[in-house]
Amino acid sequence: MSNSVGAVIVAAGRGTRMGTAESKQYLLLQGKPIIVHTLEVFQKHELISEIVLVTGEEDVERCRQWVQAYKLDKVSVVIPGGAERQHSVRRGLGELTTTWVMVHDGVRPFVQGSEIEACYERARSAGASVLAVPVKDTIKQVDGEGNVLSTPDRRSLWAIQTPQTFRLSDLLSAYDEAERDGFLGTDDSSLAERSGITVSVVEGSYRNIKITTPEDLDFAEFTERSRGEERR
Ligand SMILES: Nc1ccn([C@@H]2O[C@H](COP(=O)(O)OP(=O)(O)OP(=O)(O)O)[C@@H](O)[C@H]2O)c(=O)n1
Ligand SMILES: C[C@](O)(CO)[C@H](O)COP(=O)(O)O
Question: Site: Positions MEP for the nucleophilic attack. Where (predicted)?
Answer without folding.
Answer: 154, 210
